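Complex 608.
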Amino acid sequence: MCGIVGYTGPRQACGVLLGGLTRLEYRGYDSAGVAVVSDGEMALVRRVGKLENLKAAVAGDPVVGTAGIGHTRWATHGAPTEDNAHPHRDCSGRLAIVHNGIIENFAELRTELAAAGHAIRSETDTEVVAHLIEALYEGDLVAAVQKATARLHGSYAIAAVHLDHPDLLVAARKDSPLIIGLGDGENIVASDIPAVLEHTRRVAVLHDGQVAVVTPERVTVHDASGAEVEPEVMVVEWDLDAAEKGGYEDFMLKEIFEQPKALRETLRGRVGEDGRIQMSELQMSDEELAAIERVFIVACGTSYHAGLVAKLLIEQWARVPVEVDVSSEFRYRDPIVDRNTLVVAITQSGETADTLAGVREARERGARVFAVTNVVGSRVTREADGVIYTHAGPEIGVAATKTFTAQIAALSVLALRLAQARATLEPEQVASLWAELATVPDVVEAILADAQDIEACAREYTQAVSSLFLGRGMGVPVAMEGALKLKEISYIHAEAYPAGEMKHGPIALITPDVPVVVVATQGHTYEKVVSNIQEVRARGARVIAVATYGDEAIRSYAEHVLWIPQVSEALSAIPAAVPLQLLAYHIAKLRGCNVDQPRNLAKSVTVE
Ligand code: F6R
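Predicted structure with fructose -6-phosphate bound:
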């Protein structure tokens, strides 16, 4: 949520800032701004709406200067107006800051600063921080930022510039991501790696409580006590191409089509020469894995749906009870979690505030916590006991697609590893399931190669106001994910239900105007699903079925069939999810929606 960029070096800062913001626009896109130290003045340009508006303003009136900060906003305090857009300045206009996060004690600070004579112009929590730094400033910006952050409650990633120190950026973080791209004679602060990749692949990760002092030549990092600490530096392996559209109309479409590669990468190296499933990240022996009494999965949104798939696999293969909780519920209830519980936190971004809180809660209760994430160096990687990475590459589209299927792939391996350790499956069964899992990337490739008809199907449902998604067993989380994809990018109301529950209420919604999407792939409840299709058809519904090639009978039950190859029921979630991603994509595009940046959403939810 919110994207931050800061630049100091020999080049014109504004171009670098706008380039970085373009790559961070997925984090927030209701307003944007830049502040550049410009010949003894703080040049400030802010615009409401997409980054394009800011770019147009700057093109008409260029901002000159070699150090500055920029921001793309996802509003938390105050509407998306120009006054509320970042950067924010202090009273003197000599200091400017950008911020991502939520300052929980901002009202109290605002009252205090206003009483001391500060003129606060916006409704934001961020401007309060600018004035707080001003109040604490005695010529040393680093010291002032350090003192100010010590007074903040909540989460923040901050970058500040001051006219007294024309080439200095000061950055600080707590509970919101911040990295520093280390260049040659220039350095760039940013919320996420894509913003710096055009310039460098060497990245320092700022940790909670740390403050970075950044000049063109040098980056030093200090801990909360002010002591200098060695920054954690990593070299990013993927390149800018991976974070660009590469000829696709949108990131979402590109990412849907990247799924075979993401799955292959995620599954790579998971079986040893001895044929055993490998998951060394767990750092647990077979005995320790066998001693697990319960698995608890915590996650939000799409990652939660991956968790529901994992529950079915772990219970079926490893015979351990699994509970799946939405992180925001888990953290505030009193879950039964102890040292014999394995907690799996699923978060593609690794920065989701509620999931991180769930991780802390579980660890406090003595559980061993593993994170499944796509982002190297993200917050969850430092909070969990171990990390299982999905190797999907950067996901820029706000709607999760390739990270969802990659999560399921990684969790399938985890389920096999547990089954192997607990001897709940014979070695031959593990080998045969692994062999089939390894073919899933090819299956997805085949689905994508034969997906031309989905757009025509989508065309018939663009006017729908409401829709129902049904499935049984593995089809339930797939239906839930299909409904989430449709609602979040097309704004058509979509509700998912286990098909067997339909008679207990949702069937009342059925009319010819409410399309019903049914996951009707082959499996032990297939006949039951077909009966449910008949029931909704009898009430006038138009049915879109996800079904298996060769199932000719389904044609007579459904208006449209989205085909997938035959796979075993346990492994059907990934293939069945793909046509539903494309259905949502095409419906949203035909309705003229911005699929990469749906309204009100942000890619990583770093606030509660
Ligand atoms: C939906 C979507 C969200 C995320 C959720 C959790 O397409 O992307 O529902 O899945 O915000 O995010 P992570 O996985 O980053 O914790």
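The chain has a mean pLDDT of 94.
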